[in-house]
Amino acid sequence: MATRFRTYAEFWPFYLGEHAKPSTRAVHYVGSIASVAMLVLALATRDWWLLLTVPFLGYGPAWFGHFFIEKNRPATFQAPVWSLVSDYRMCGLFLTGRIGHELMKYQIRP
Length: 110
Hints:
- The chain is mainly alpha-helical.
- The protein is built from 5 helices and no strands.
- The protein has one domain.
- Helix 1 (8-17) packs across helix 4 (80-95), helix 2 packs antiparallel against helix 3 (53-70) and helix 2 crosses helix 4.
């Protein structure tokens, strides 16, 4: 199904729609921030074993949100790279207070 999206610009509104519920987005933010924090900690301490936790911290909460809150399949299964980029883009928009505007732009509602 990854061929369904020819460009990232086509994928982004789909991605946002798959994260319509605020609680789904919230667990994504937790996972995204935790994964970056662990990556920084691993680099700072040079404890390379910590790198093994990064994907679990990032994907664990996100997939929980999809399966138990949003009740859909993670976009990772359709477009893994674009989904990863979008996880951090969505988190960045949240941290800068611009996620609401982006959701309204594409008429995404819970």
